[in-house]
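Okay, any thoughts on this one?
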Amino acid sequence: MIDKLKASDKQVTTWLAKSNENARLFFSDPVAALAKAGVELERGDAKAIARAHANASNQAVVMPGVRLSEVVISATDRRPGSKGRGDGGGRKPASDASNCCGKEG
C-alpha cells in the first residue's frame, strides 16, 4: 500500500490543489478522496486507511474555529520484514514554525 500511495503522490497532490472541497474530503474521508483522485485501492488497503483515520480522528480533536499553522503527516510500514522504522518515526514538527504558512518575520 505504501508504494501505491507514494506512486500516486503527485496525482493526489494535484487533485487536492484543485479545490478546498477536495482537501476537506481528504481530511474527513481519505478513502473516498483517494478514489475521487483516481487512486485505486484494494479493499484491504481501503479498510486499513479507514481504520487508521478513525483511530486518529478519535484521538486528535481540534475545536471549531481553531486555525492550524502546520499539519505534519507521516506513514510507516510496520509489517514484519519491512524497511519501515516501525517506531512511529517520521518528521518531527519543527520547534520554530517561523517559515510556516507564509508568515513573515
